[in-house]
Design brief:
The protein has four helices and no strands. The chain is elongated. Helix 1 crosses helix 2, helix 1 runs antiparallel to helix 4 and helix 3 runs antiparallel to helix 4. By secondary structure, it is mainly α.
């Protein structure tokens, strides 16, 4: 994977994570602390979580093609790092009750799955487009011969 492709994946992941974090914060906040109201500074938290959420993606970068087993291992490591970073933030902010941490961890998993799903969809669409272009090129070459 080239650096450019890796950066494209990071940008897409960032925006998916930020969107999902907004939804997760809304749902978990309404469920566990509905009386709390925020100021405008609260808009910065999803961006911060989005940035921190893409940091573990560095373990998936490789200049060479990885086997399926290697990529799955790196994705698992990425998920563990992501869970560790996010739970660490919440834990050190003072929320140590499992009633809060467990749903938060599940939300992190769901957000991670959503981001991977969007990335898979984008990659699938790109591969389909490249295959169609290759078919057109082959047909054109056959007509020339």
């Amino acid at each position: 994977m080239s650096k450019r492709e890796f950066m494209e994946r990071l940008v897409i992941s960032f925006f998916v994570v930020v969107t999902c974090v907004n939804l997760a914060m809304a749902f978990l906040g309404m469920r566990y602390e509905p009386e709390i109201r925020f100021g405008y500074h609260a808009f910065l938290f999803p961006v911060m979580y989005g940035f921190l959420g893409i940091l573990p993606s560095a373990v998936t970068y490789s200049r060479r093609e990885l086997s399926v087993k290697q990529m799955l291992l790196r994705k698992l490591l990425q998920l563990l790092l992501l869970e560790g970073i996010m739970v660490g933030i919440v834990f050190f902010a003072g929320s140590t009750a499992w009633e809060v941490l467990l749903p938060f961890m599940v939300m992190i998993l769901l957000i991670s799955i959503a981001a991977e799903g969007v990335l898979w969809f984008v990659a699938r669409r790109k591969a389909k487009s490249l295959n169609e272009e290759l078919k057109r090129f082959q047909i054109r070459k056959e007509k020339e011969n």
